[in-house]
Design brief:
This protein is mainly alpha-helical and 225 residues long. Helices cover 62% and strands 9% of the residues. It is built from nine helices and three strands, in the order βαααααααββαα. Strands 1-2-3 form a three-stranded antiparallel β-sheet. Strand 2 and strand 3 form a beta hairpin. Helix 5 runs parallel beside helix 7, helix 6 runs antiparallel to helix 9 and helix 7 crosses helix 9. The radius of gyration is 18 Å and the shape is globular.
Length: 225
Amino acid sequence: MIPIRDSVRSRRRPLLVYAIFAINAYVFFNELTMGRDIVRFFYEYGLVAREFWQTDSFVDRFVPVVTSMFLHAGWLHFGGNMLYLWIFGDNVEDRMGHGRFLAFYLISGAAAALTQLIVNPNATAPMVGASGAIAGILGAYLRLFPRARVVTLVPVFFFLHLIEVPAMFFLVFWFFIQLASGSLAFVAPQDGGTAFWAHIGGFVAGFILGPRFARKPKVEVLPPW
């Protein structure tokens, strides 16, 4: 299922979603010009599990946790992440406010990275992508907008159909796909490939932290007369 749009409308412009989208796009289109240098670039700014656990440098350990969130390993990787950010991120930012949303995004991404680092601590391939932080947005969306609906594109044989489904069904289904794939990867860990446990860790972090970062809705108090 490919999400197209959701039923929740934001009250404010999602400035941080725009900014995160723009930064990811800028970095990705620069990656396309690097040729063979892209491998060195990923090792320099991506997150390598073995180096994370072995280095004694604070900068070398934690800076790649942030920089890796803005790198992508291809059009499908970039496009899929930005699609989910665009559809679900605006509503979460609207509920949290710009500053809280930025903090939430980075914390979710860090929690996602840490989960993957714990599950596969000896990996030598660089981990890149915004999907861990965006998984946090999905977890928060599930908590904050449980009654929303999502229009999805579903392939049926050779045809594509638009179907509106409850957001709760869509997001829980997405999570269990990650959990099933992550369980297989846990049994037979690979050096590289999709970091499913980062998705799981980010989603759980967002599910727990989302309501804590959300602002309480304003309640109008009527005068006694």
